[in-house]
Amino acid sequence: MAWRRRWGLRWSAGLEGGERWRTEGGSRSHLRGDGRDAADGGEFVLGDPEDEGEVRGLRGHPIVQIKHEMVEEAKRMHAEDIAANQAMGRHGATLMPSEGGVLTHCNAGALATAGYGTALGVIRAAVEAGKKIHVYADETRPFLQGARLTAWELVKDGIPTTVISDNMAGAVMRQGKIGAIVVGADRIAANGDVANKIGTYTVAVLAKENGIPFYVAAAAVDGGYGVSGWQQDSD
User: Against a cut of 0.70, is the pTM above it?
Assistant: First the structure.
């Protein structure tokens, strides 16, 4: 699931031939075969799928070598993801207020990525740039990712954080405590619609009502797998 979301790997089930995984967004790895699983004659391929001269097939190689190559590829993907999130964070940090409150919903931090985060990466980069940010983390019902994950990450980093219940978001906005809102995304449709944890739409509407900038920090490869758009009342 993490590879599909972070690296744009799209499942192409039921193919009789060609690639079993189709890659997007410059992904470094894909799995090719004839519609079967890797254990049934597929081939794990390393390198850039757009440059066949660089592709290295591993079928028939010793299992020790296959394990080594897969571990090395995982390490490269890990480093690439962190670098991409750090770059996203630097760009997003310029949109955050110099001081004051920033609200976020759910968890889009190190625990949801390879180690830096998208929405929380923006907050981290803003703090690293010297901005005095106080985070308001929605608890994010029903599984409380904001209270259990986001707050834990930020406190570990020494970033001031207040956990609020989801239905407090409008009140703290109205009180002038929030200067910006930044969230991550589970999926982005072709028309730019964003799908994220339940409750995100409510936060966006409240942000518009209160004139507060609302930002989504997400990689372009967080695609909706062919979905053209979502209903506006869907989270």
Answer: yes
